[in-house]
Design goal:
6-stranded mixed sheet, 15 helices, 2 domains, Cytidine Deaminase, domain 2
């Protein structure tokens, strides 16, 4: 299945502007969230200063031309006027370059959308080449070195971008702690825990707020976590947690949702995983949002909010569009809950 990892500047991300093609190649692992392998990545830019407005990644094996189709209208909606296409294949060692037909078809699609193709690159493990200048003097036969740990990387790290070594590392962040999840499953089935269902809505929202704001979520007693997990199953409580907490608040909330997901048994774990996906998507972190959404739908394939986020990711929906709707709904719900009698 093709996995799209769209990223565009979210509310807590500074505008990223890149100079030459080497800068873009160096930035891609941070834009995607991990170093792509066997992948096709398109970086869409806007204006004379080449502001990054959208990045999308798909697996090379999953018909990239079809899978990247939704990225073009999304890029246009974000004001993109140029694109860099990159094919990542560690086996590439020079001409003939792999995935040649894919690269040229993507260039044709981009031009149909009135996007200037800055270049189309094939990136190997240590060198990269252009599909546009083979046989000419602009690219040496041995390719150009893949840049890393330069000024662009330093700027991205300083501005809050991060990368992990692989997609598997992202999955490990939300891997289930089977032992503690079994303990919590027992508590969730106990009749006493279900007293949470009778709490006023505002009390449930406030209780979950306290868990999310905790410095170390997993240090809380099992019963506290079980009550929070149960409270989150209420749509009103869940939706109240969808508000935009700002840069630092959102990062802290993401850590809390990831921690809660590691100890929440199925199907309850679908909720904190989806909350993590929403936070990640809002920050433009499509890779983490994809992984969290996948895990949420594995926990509960029918969970509607997870399906909504999955559709937003599949359509390369700019984060600001979904984030605005969810934040407004969350603030309205909290205002309503504050006005309710205890």
């Amino acid at each position: 299945m093709a996995r799209r990892t769209p990223r565009s500047p979210g509310g807590d991300r500074p505008v990223l502007r890149l100079g030459g093609l080497a800068d873009v190649v160096e930035a891609i692992p941070y834009l995607v969230g991990f170093p792509p392998r066997d992948s096709v990545v398109v970086v869409c830019l806007a204006g004379s200063r080449r502001k990054v407005v959208l990045t999308a990644r798909v697996d090379s094996a999953d018909d990239p031309v079809r899978a990247l189709g939704p990225a073009w209208p999304a890029a246009a909606q974000e004001g993109a006027d140029a694109v860099l296409i990159t094919v990542f294949d560690d086996a590439a060692v020079g001409c003939p370059l792999p995935h040649d037909e894919v690269a040229w078809n993507l260039m044709a699609d981009a031009r149909e959308q009135q996007l200037e193709v800055l270049d189309a690159l094939c990136v190997g493990s240590t060198r990269y080449w252009s599909y546009l200048c083979r046989g000419q003097t602009c690219c040496p036969d041995e390719g150009r070195p893949v840049p890393s740990s330069g000024a662009v990387s330093a700027e991205l790290v300083f501005s809050g971008h991060s990368t992990v070594s692989s997609r598997e590392d992202l999955r490990a962040e939300v891997a289930l702690d089977e032992v503690r999840a079994r303990r919590l499953a027992g508590l969730l089935r106990q009749e006493g825990t279900h007293s949470v269902d009778h709490w006023p809505l505002l009390a449930r929202i406030t209780y979950v707020d306290e868990i999310v704001d905790a410095d170390d979520v997993l240090s809380r007693p099992d019963r506290d976590l079980a009550c929070a997990i149960l409270a989150l199953q209420h749509v009103g409580v869940r939706d109240a947690q969808l508000l935009d907490r700002g840069p630092e608040g959102d990062r802290a909330a993401s850590r809390a949702w990831a921690a809660l997901a590691t100890v929440s048994p199925k199907p309850w774990r679908a909720v904190p995983l989806t909350m993590l996906a929403v936070c990640a998507h809002r920050r433009g972190d499509g890779a983490r949002a994809n992984v969290a959404t996948e895990a949420a739908l594995q926990a509960d394939p029918s969970y509607r909010l997870a399906r909504l986020v999955a559709e937003a990711l599949a359509c390369a929906l700019p984060p600001r569009l979904l984030a605005g709707v969810l934040d407004t709904a969350a603030r309205d719900l909290r205002a309503t809950a504050n006005g309710m009698p205890g």
